[in-house]
Amino acid sequence: MKPGRRLVGRWWVVGLLGLVGAGCRSPAPIDLAAASVLEGDWSAVLTVDPVPGLRRPDEVRGTVALLVNRAGVTVPDLEGVPLDVGVHDLALGDVSPGLAGRELPEVVATLHADSVVLIIGPGASRPLRLRGVLLGDSVAGRWSAVQRAAVSFTGTFVLRRRLPRG
Q1: Over the stretch 141-153, which tens digit does the pLDDT of each residue have?
Q2: How far apart are CA 84 and CA 70, in angstroms?
Q3: pTM higher than 0.90 for the full model?
Q4: Per residue in 83-103, pLDDT tens?
Q5: How many other CB atoms are found less than 10 A from the CB of residue 68?
Q6: Is the pLDDT of residue 14 over 60?
Q7: CB-based contact 115:85 (threshold 8 Å)
Q8: What gap in Å lies between CA 24 and CA 21, rounded to an integer?
Q9: What is the pLDDT of residue 23?
């Protein structure tokens, strides 16, 4: 084989390996500074908007605990990699039954400037989406539980940090 052909052959292999490697990249690194803003335990109050003729709770109270998503876990219906992942103890059965998402965190969160998005039950058929504004140690905004063949519940929410950031 001629030296020139051998060189072209090697570059072709290097290029092919580069394309294969591009498809196998690890997740994008997490913005640790932004993720740490939401990390911690939050008390949560979700107020449910009235729906005539339907029995529903007036509000749901509980806690949400978030950690930095160091593993780069991704979830359906959320563009990019969430900054934080976590759990909750909110009793949401009357608002959105069947929230269990298999092999996914129960809560994911992301932050852009002062806008916060949380998804409770990512990957579930009826996740809750919370969109709010971060102001100090609280987040306030609107939430929705969209269901295909039933009424969609909506309301307001407030999250308050349980312990001040140290």
Answers
A1: 999 987 766 667 8
A2: 8
A3: no
A4: 999 999 888 877 765 555 555
A5: 17
A6: no
A7: no
A8: 5
A9: 40
**Is 142 in contact with 159 (CB distance < 8 Å)?**
no
Tokens 């063949």 found at? 149
**Residue with tokens 């780069």, as numbered in its chain:** 72
Cα–Cα distance list, 44 to 18, 25, 35, 118 (Å): 46, 36, 19, 12
Q: Is 36 exposed, middle or buried (0-12, 13-18, 19+ CB in 10 A)?
A: middle
Report which of 116, 105, 114 is spatially closest to residue 70, judged by C-alpha positions.
105
Question: How many residues belong to the chain?
Answer: 166
Cβ-contact 117, 83 below 8 angstroms: no
Distance CA 158, CA 4 (A): 68
For 67, list phi and psi in degrees, rounded to 5.
-125, 155
Give the number of other Cβ atoms within 10 Å of residue 158's Cβ: 15
